[in-house]
Amino acid sequence: MRCAAAAKGERAPAAKRKTRLREAALRKDVAKQGGPHVPRRSSHKKLSKWLLGNAHSEVHKALDWPHKLLGRRHRILFHDPLSAMFFGAAAAARRGKNPLTGAAAGVVHVAQDMLSSAFKMLKPRRRRRKFRLF
């Protein structure tokens, strides 16, 4: 969305700058409203380490691989308990770890994702204040 003035090294007209700022603000608002909360891989690894004694980073990496393509909608793939167990066991066995704990890490991963989304839905949204004189 660059104009001819910006290509020459000059400043863009004020109307164009305002439009760009408005579009950026709109994108941020849409991102804030967006879908389910996605926990970081580090939190998945910490929970697995605490519950299972091993972080199983390869399991979490394998389960969240579709995030590269689908973004927040990545949970439509591999995030049901049965496929999480299967992919968790396969990823752990590939690294030479116990497939049973890998399967358990997959189930823990899915449970943590579901809980984090549920807690996000419970959190009250901030309402805009209306200032009244009386």
List low-pLDDT spans.
Answer: 29-34
Estimated structural class: mainly alpha
Count the beta strands: 0
Q: Helicity range of the residues? A: 55-70%
Q: Report the portion of residues in β strands.
A: under 5%
Please give the largest β-sheet.
none
Count of alpha/pi helices: 7
The backbone outline, from C-alpha atoms, is elongated
The structural domain count equals 2
Mean pLDDT: 77
Q: CA-to-CA gap between the ends? A: 46 Å
Q: Helix and strand succession?
A: HHHHHHH
How does the SSE layout of this entry go?
Layout: H1 4-7, H2 14-33, H3 41-52, H4 57-63, H5 67-70, H6 81-94, H7 99-122
Question: Can you describe what's shown?
Answer:
By secondary structure, this protein is mainly α. It has two domains: 4-33; 41-122, no CATH class. It has seven helices and no strands.
Features:
2 domains, 134 residues, 7 helices, mainly alpha
Quick take:
By secondary structure, this protein is mostly helical.
